[in-house]
Structures are given as structure tokens and as C-alpha cells.
Amino acid sequence: MSIGEDLADARRRAGLTVTQVSQQTRIRESIIRDIEQGDFTACGGDFYARGHIRSIAGAVGTDPVPLVSEYDADHGPVGPLRAADVFEPSKPIKIRERRSPSMTMIVVVVLLAIIGYASYRLVSSHNKSGHPAAAASTTPQPSVRPTPSSAKASTTPSVAPSDLVIKVAAGPEDCWVLLTRAGNGSQIFMGVVPAGSSRTWTEKEAVNIRLGNPAAIVLTVNGQRQPIKTILPVTLSYSPQGGSSLAAQPGASSTALSG
Q: Which DSSP state fits 183?
């Protein structure tokens, strides 16, 4: 049987539809159907094809290692990775360019700033001329010393209580990572965290993080290390309120994680 036939057969044995596998892996349904038919051209290159095979295999509960080995035998072994191979797929993705602020908007902002400053000077001069007694008063005012608690608060790192700080540190092996927003499914990051390096993201809403090689990384959320009791690809969910969950995967542990 081919790679696609093995994945399709495992999906049917698991009782899953293509739509359900797509929701778990964040891979488009059309790409999953093409892979099951042995067509990997829509994956965007060998690197992404291998990542899709691992993700789909983890979702349907089959071992991805022999499938990736078979892919390497058909398409050539894994060569040295370049940054362009990881972050630039074979099929270019159109990105909408952000428009720079118009000249009219800049002029309006400058005029508002000038008007505001002029109003401040006018009010300030009026107060000085209208209340000479207040200006001449020499009554000492009690100085307010900052309390230890306020001084300590001023040196607290500027991380909002509602922020969600996620850090992925790769150990001796690379790890493929997909980070999306739980609310609308928009993609924050997709790529590989190379061995010996780390990536950090700060978000203000709940996120889902898909790890292709969870045994090779150390995951921390808001400074707390998260235990991951599985070696298969896994999807984790975190929210700024501190809650976290481990998406149930066929053949993988579903132990709840502490946020």
C-alpha cells in the first residue's frame, strides 16, 4: 500500500472523516485528500509534506516513522535545511501589503498636537495671571515618598496580567510547530524550531499549539514548564486565564496539563 492509502485506511479504522482530521491538524481538506491519493504537490515542498504526514498520522493513530521513511525513499532523503526551505514554501503565498498612513492623516495628527499644545499654554498663562496669591504662596507642601510597594510595582516587568506567554525551546532535535488562535483559527506561526534554539510568543487570547515532535522540546507557559506525556504529534490549548488542555489524540496520552 502507498503512503496515502495507509493514511486513508488508518483514518477509516479510527472512524474519522477528512473534515475531522482537518480540524485536528489545521491542514486543509483538499491537501489531505490529495495526500491520500498519493499527490504531495499541494504541500508546498518536501519539508511540509513530511510535516503533514506526521500530523495526519498522529491524528488517525498510526506510526508516522515508516510513512516518512517511505516518503524519503520515494523523494530522496532529508538534506541540510536552509532557512528559506523552512519559512518559504515552494508555492509563494500572497501577502496583503499594509498601507502606510496617508499624508492627510499625518497632517491632521500634527495639527491636533499643535492645537493641544497651544490650548495648554493658554490655560497655563491664564491661571498664573488670575491667581497671583497662589503663585506667591510659600506654604511648604508635604512631600510624598513612594511606599516600598509602589516602588516595587514600578519595577515590575511590563507584562499585562491577561497576556499569554508561550515559549518553545528545542533540545537535540528540531520540532515542527503550528500556533493558531483558538477563536478564529488564524495562523500565528508555522515552521520548525531548530535544535538548540527557542521561540517565544505573547498573545492576549486563547491559542492552540500543534507540536510535531513533542519529546524534543521544553514548553513553558507564563514561565511554568508544561509536562507533555506523549511522543506523538499533539495539539495543546491555552487561555490567558491560566487554563490549558491536551487535545485527545488516538494513540496518545490525554492527561490534563496544569497551566
A: T
Q: Characterize the bridge pairing of strands 187-193 and 198-203.
A: unpaired
pLDDT of residue 177: 93
pLDDT at 83: 47
Give the containing element (helix H, strand E) for 54: helix 46-60
Angstrom distance (rounded) from CA 227 to CA 229: 6
pTM over 0.90: no
Cell of residue 88, nine digits = 518559504
8 Å CB contact between 196 and 170: yes
Determine contact, residues 199/189, Cβ cutoff 8 Å. yes
N-terminal to C-terminal alpha carbon distance within the chain = 42
Question: pLDDT by residue (tens digit) across 7-58?
Answer: 999 999 999 999 999 999 999 999 999 999 989 999 988 899 999 999 999 9
Q: What is the pLDDT of residue 122?
A: 84
Question: To which residue does cell 516518503 refer?
Answer: 71
In this structure, what C-alpha cell is assigned to residue 240?
490567558
Cα torsion 113, 114, 118, 124: sign = positive
Helix, strand, coil share (%) of the chain residues, nearest 5: 40, 20, 40
